[in-house]
């Protein structure tokens, strides 16, 4: 309140408190983007959450379940960089609500799908909606950042993680017990998101690009082509390590708890939820910390700080397994916002393309890693998977090679 009062006093009589109003608009836009991200990722996470229902209704094999995932993941991951690249050169604010309309139709089809081919079409539409959403929404978050790009990016991302965390719980409690038609209720969430995103698009047309120009390129130094290639290569290695490990927890943690500690599946789902909640909190904290101490410092803390937890986890009892996985979620997730913003600083003016590549890579690595780790678990056992994945954070030493993007003061 005191900040608001000082802003009002500093303005001439009769004029609106421009600075404070601007802050309020930025916060509202950023909040709207985070809420819409929550809706988008809630819907997309609902797809694998209802696999038991779809498997029962259509007598699907595991290979067919995998095909649903492949169609969705490939649609979402392959389209995102191209959509981002195109909209960097030709801004299309209307793509935000349009993409969510595709998701809405996908959910509707999924609710009434009479056979497997329609399920595949529905998953492709949901993938198209996700591919359209992430590059554009990430760009809007940067527009609304007021120069605090890490804070904005982490706020945007935490909305998605919240949606992802709650989807399995809602599916178990409300969707699966009531059958396939109950999926149609998710159309209300998609419709709400369309309305929110329409408002965001109108703001983008009127004010967004002015905000972007005001803060783009501040305190940055240009990198040589060699340094750009090096920076992006290091980011790629770090993303591979991060999302392979996250995929191991997201996809197989429940099976690990059931096999090793004989937990019932509903109780194991609660443990998975606590991990996903920790990921959301870590993401939210990582962005502002990166704005204060630098992107590279956050990456160092995230990757090296998680090493003892990841190495100890396969050898711990149930209590300490839960504690260690929460620590892993908190620490490891803090780096993603920093990596996205760092890559956007390496390639200024390519906000949408970078966001598309980063989120597309997240989907792609997650899908491929899940399949590879599943095969590895079939051969050597689920505990061996976590013993091996525990060494992945050591790839964080590649951070030593990351060029600085900030000017030396």
From TrEMBL:
Pfam families: MFS_1 (PF07690). The keyword DNA-binding does not apply. Signal peptide: none annotated. The chain crosses the membrane at residues 62-82, 94-112, 118-137, 158-176, 182-205, 230-256, 268-285, 297-313, 319-342, 354-373, 379-402. InterPro entries: MFS, MFS_dom, MFS_trans_sf. Keywords: Membrane, Transmembrane, Transmembrane helix. GO terms for cellular component: plasma membrane. CDD domains: MFS_FsR. Residues 29-406 form the Major facilitator superfamily (MFS) profile domain. One of its GO terms (molecular function) is transmembrane transporter activity. This is FSR family fosmidomycin resistance protein-like MFS transporter. It comes from Pantoea allii. The lineage of its organism: Bacteria, Pseudomonadati, Pseudomonadota, Gammaproteobacteria, Enterobacterales.
């Amino acid at each position: 309140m005191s900040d608001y009062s000082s802003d009002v006093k500093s303005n001439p009589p009769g004029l609106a408190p421009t600075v404070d109003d601007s802050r309020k608009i930025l916060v509202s836009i950023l909040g709207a983007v985070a809420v819409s991200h929550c809706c988008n990722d809630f819907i997309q996470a609902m797809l694998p959450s209802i696999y038991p229902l779809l498997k029962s209704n259509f007598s699907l094999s595991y290979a067919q379940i995998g095909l649903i995932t492949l169609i969705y993941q490939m649609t979402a991951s392959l389209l995102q960089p191209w959509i981002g690249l195109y909209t960097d050169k030709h801004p299309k604010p209307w793509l935000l609500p349009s993409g969510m309309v595709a998701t809405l139709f996908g959910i509707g089809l999924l609710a009434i799908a009479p056979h497997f081919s329609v399920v595949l079409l529905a998953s492709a539409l949901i993938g198209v909606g996700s591919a359209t959403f992430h590059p554009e929404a990430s760009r809007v978050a940067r527009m609304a950042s007021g120069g605090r790009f890490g804070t904005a990016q982490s706020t945007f991302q935490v909305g998605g993680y919240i949606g992802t965390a709650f989807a399995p719980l809602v599916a178990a409690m409300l969707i699966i017990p009531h059958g396939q038609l109950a999926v149609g209720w998710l159309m209300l969430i998609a419709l709400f998101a369309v309305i929110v995103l329409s408002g965001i698009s109108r703001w983008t047309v009127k004010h967004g690009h002015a905000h972007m120009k005001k803060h783009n390129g501040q305190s940055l130094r240009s990198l040589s082509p060699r340094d750009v290639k090096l920076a992006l290569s290091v980011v790629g290695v770090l993303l591979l390590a991060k999302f392979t490990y996250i995929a191991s927890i997201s996809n197989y943690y429940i099976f690990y708890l059931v096999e090793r500690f004989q937990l019932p599946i509903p109780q194991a789902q609660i443990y998975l939820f606590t991990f996903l909640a920790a990921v959301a909190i870590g993401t939210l904290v990582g962005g502002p910390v990166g704005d204060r101490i630098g992107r590279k410092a956050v990456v160092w803390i995230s990757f090296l700080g998680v090493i003892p937890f990841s190495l100890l986890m396969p050898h711990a009892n149930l209590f300490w397994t839960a504690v260690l996985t929460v620590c892993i979620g908190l620490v490891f997730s803090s780096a993603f916002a920093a990596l996205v913003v760092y890559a956007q600083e390496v390639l200024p003016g390519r906000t949408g393309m970078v966001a598309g590549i980063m989120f597309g890579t997240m989907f792609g690595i997650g899908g491929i890693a899940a399949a590879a780790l599943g095969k590895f678990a079939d051969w050597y056992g689920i505990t061996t998977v976590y013993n091996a994945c525990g060494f992945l954070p050591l790839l964080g030493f590649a951070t030593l090679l990351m060029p600085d993007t900030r000017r030396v003061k």
